[in-house]
Amino acid sequence: MLVLGADCGGSTTRVIAATLDGRVVGAGRAGPGNPTGGDPERAAAELGRAVSLALDGLEPAMVRGGVVGMAGYSRLTDPAVRAAYDAEWAAAGLSCPLWTYGDAPVAFAAGTPHPSGRVLIAGTGAVAAEIRSRAELRAADGLGWLIGDEGSGYWIGREAIRHAARALSAGTGLDPLSERVCDRLGSTVREGFLTAVYTASRAEIAALAPDVFDLAHSSNPAAAVVSDAARRLLITLGELGEVPGPLVLAGGLLTADTPLRAAVLDLLAEPAVTAADTARAAAWLALVELTAPDPVAAADLHRRMVTDEA
Questions:
Q1: What DSSP character marks residue 60?
Q2: Which overall architecture, per CATH, does domain 2-110+276-309 show?
Q3: Antiparallel, parallel or unpaired: β 2-8 and 13-19
Q4: What predicted TM-score, i.e. pTM, was given to this entire model?
Q5: Which CATH number applies to 153-273?
């Protein structure tokens, strides 16, 4: 018997197939499977492709359930969107339940087997969430690039652009951060710079965050951006108030060895655990949904499936 776990991201979809004792026996990767980022039918097809790859050489009839984690999973309440995903599930030869989770509960489960606590996520976007009984109870920020996501990769990239724009307008010369931003955008002329900014995608702006990190140890402006980002993430986390249970750090900017992660850890007044692989966590959640193990057994499965593979 098998379960599936899927992490449907805005750029990549990853699927894990595992046995009921927590042994991973298949994996698949495909393009963006999140319906909020574009055509829902195309996103569903990417999930279907990743599922097929994960089940290569395995019998689909053996799958007893699956968890799909994605940001904006409420889109699946739209009958047409849900129908597209159900169709791909069926096309893969699956007739078992498909449970959908938001990205916050899956990210939390990637760090701990506990059912309740908090998760702070910083990637392209940023959000903090209280998790209660493996479901998102409430969130802070996560408001998107236009009005929120403070401290995220997009926010960091935008702050670097603002710094470079002011330097260009002042005409007093470019510091290393401004030079790096101008190089990435392909112009040191104000009008060309602004054209590049306003034709850049959100992903391209967020992609400036690694440049900021690269300069943070030697450039005061870059270090200031990182410090401000960490402070804003801690403010977002603080909006949840005191919540019993562990704190999990998740998202690429907080799970990798980045200056932002270091700055957040310096500001935290409590211990935190780091999220591991979210597709494995989704598969673990599917096992919990299907078998309802006692807490000790659930923790043992989590250690073997998720934590030990970090």
A1: G
A2: 2-Layer Sandwich (3.30)
A3: antiparallel
A4: 0.90
A5: 3.30.420.40
